[in-house]
Amino acid sequence: MAGLRTVAAIALTLVALTVLHTAITYMVAGAMAAVVSTFAIKEKQVRGQAVTLALGLPVALAAVSLGALLHSRIIAGDAFFVALIFGAVYSRRFGDRGTALGLIGFQIYFVSLFVGAAVSALPTLYLTLAIAFACSAVVRFAVVPETPHRILHRLRNAFRARVAQLVDSQIELLDAGPEQLDKVLDELRRHTARLHEAALMIQSRLEEGSPDAATAALLQRRVADAEIATERLGMLLLNARSAERADTLTLHLPHAPVPATGTLISAEDTTTVTLRRDLKALHLMVARPSEDRGTAVAHVRNRLLGYRDEDKLPRASTAVQDVFRGIGEAARAVMGLRLALDGPQDESNDSPATTRSREEFDAEDVALAGADEPEEDAEPAGLKRPTTRAAFQVSVGSVLAIIGGEFLSTQRWYWAVLTCWVVFLNTASTGEILVKGYRRLLGTIVGVVAGVALAGVVGNHTWLAFSLVLLFIFAMFFTAPLSYALMSFFVTAMLGLLYTLLNTYSLSVLVLRIEETALGAVCGIIAAVLVLPVHTDRRTDELLATVLDRLRDVVSAAVEQLSGGPASDLLGRARDLDTALDELRASTQPLTHPITPLRGRRQTARYLVALLETCAYHARSLAATAELVPHSRTVAADPRLDRAARRIAHNIEVIAAHVQDEGKGAQVESGASIASMLKDDGSGALPSGTVAFRVLRHLQRLDEGVAGLARPLDVPVSDGRAVSPPV
Question: Does residue 688 contact residue 324 with C-beta atoms inside 8 Å?
């Protein structure tokens, strides 16, 4: 959508400037201004977008004016450029609006340098910028409108599609032979991760896109239920077709060992045929359009929900019966998601199991009221504030880039400054800047080769060049989340076309582009290393400590509620954990990148992230179950769980203290399982398939997962035994 909006804004700007018989130079400036005025604004509310766009125009006019006035004054112009860069980066501390205005100021000043703006041309440039901003407004608010409600609606549809894809991959897992299992597991991991991403995207848009807090809380609950139930179904399937209990890490660690195929499931077995039929029926429930509410869907729903009753289960092994139970829970979650997204449905064909599920949903809705407001983390002050530190780093790097760029070219030195600026965006450590600089240089080199070929094809065909520019801009936006190197390729190829339009194209210009890009990346890395550096190890340790703290908060609050304590916003805390884990995963990219020479650290980083993902999965499941207390008919508080979870909380605190170089004498406790700890009080084992058994199992996996973190982090274990990963 961002790509479509930007391309439409550029096209409308070019049409308006063509009607006014504007010169090619100003058309290029207008196209670049349309890009900036469209992609810079990230605010979620329409009113805020309009205010920022209105404020952006005077900022743009001031930037192009100063660019023209200081064009011939080298020292003053360079000094102002550095000051502008500092202000643009520092303004990010003021939120989306500050970020947008700073970006507009920097980019429009860059545009003035790119087109060689002069004082005599300012009136025409003013008109060009005004037209570009006006066209951006028309496209944003009329042609391709973006409202929080529309975005949330698209995300909801995307989440449904992701659930359907995951169920498809689970059907493939059921039918896959031993030689196909590795490939099918890769697909299962990918679809599981994509479903989680879609759930997080919905979470980020709930507050603005929902009519009220109650609706947002309901949708959050139903999305979490569907995500957890569908992911759990994949784990149960994997366990049922394995010779031994499957490792939870298999769903989260790429290239994890493929579990040995067992004999619990046979392709010709009657139970397997029924299982395949019911998985396809579950897919039908997810994928069938919301307006289609006929008896076929009702019949499928009634049959699948019946598996939640023990007397409806087919005769099979315990592991296979668990899969049928998982299908019933997934069907219930899908039904709840449909109710939250599509409203009330026809109840005339409901079976007793379906009626019971509806009553459970009504009871659960009561538990969603009165959620606690999340506490905001205190922001560091002074030079420890990320925006302040980045502002100084970029400024120093830009000074180096200006000096070095002037030696390479007195006319196009600003490319080095732009690269230095870009490698600092959305990065927080020296390693991230190094990897981003490498990717930008790689994309630039390949883009130059493409630019040479395109220049020969385009020749003097102006509108062909502009059409390709529009295509490359859309590709740039579309590939940005997927590959920074690929995005840099499209940017460089597009610039080659712009140089062709300005009649300044030559092979030497594109080679200079590579040199300036390499120089800018090196200057950015030097500044990151020498000026208030944040080393990758320190950054990952800080984020790891944050993930552990939030994991402890989720587990402690969930167990407290399961033990009969007060209700709290457990799903909100679980999403905070997921957000922190995503940040940790991004910060470890320099350690897991293929160019990293330390293969041992790369494997350790991947293992740690995968282990934490399994812990987060079990914590989410605990939170979702705990939110049913005390209003559910199927989940009752059990005070024994509080004692069982103390070891988990203790171990998390020990590991977090070790990561932060505190509490060196403390040790991780291991020994008797959580289940045996509860059996010691004479209560006996819990029956398989019950909610209490599931809670106990999640606690056991969490206990094993947290203890499993001790080995790669070199945390001492109390009894001296080797700690195995969770299963």
Answer: no
**What pLDDT does residue 206 have?**
81
CB atoms within 10 A of CB 188: 25
| Closest C-alpha to 494, from 462, 466, 459, 519 | 466
Taking the CB of residue 310, how many other CB atoms lie within 10 A of it?
Answer: 11
Question: Angle at CA 327, nearest 5°, toward 323 and 331?
Answer: 170
How far apart CA 252 and CA 382 sit, in angstroms, is 39
Map residue 534 onto helix, strand or coil: coil
- In total, the chain counts a number of residues equal to 727
Could you tell me which of 282, 72, 70, 93 has the C-alpha nearest to residue 174?
A: 282
Other CB atoms within 10 Å distance of the CB of residue 623? 27
CA 255, CA 606: separation in Å to the nearest integer? 10
* pTM across the whole model: 0.77
Strand boundaries in 513-630, DSSP class E: none
362 class by beta-carbon count within 10 Å (0-12 exposed, 13-18 middle, 19+ buried): exposed
Instruction: Report pLDDT digits (tens) over 267-289.
Output: 567 888 888 899 999 998 888 75
249, 279, 282: which is closest to 265 by C-alpha?
279
Calpha distance 477→547 (Å, rounded): 30
The model's pLDDT over 638-683, given as tens digits with 9 standing for 90+, comes to: 676 777 678 888 889 889 888 887 766 678 887 666 666 555 555 5
| Spatial CB neighbours of 283, under 8 Å, sequence gap ≥ 6 | 164, 167, 168, 171
Q: Name the token pair of 322.
A: 């668990």
Looking at 176-307, list the stretches that DSSP marks H as alpha helix, in order from N- to C-terminal side.
181-209, 213-240, 270-287, 295-305
219 SS3 class: helix
Residue found under tokens 């990230």: 42
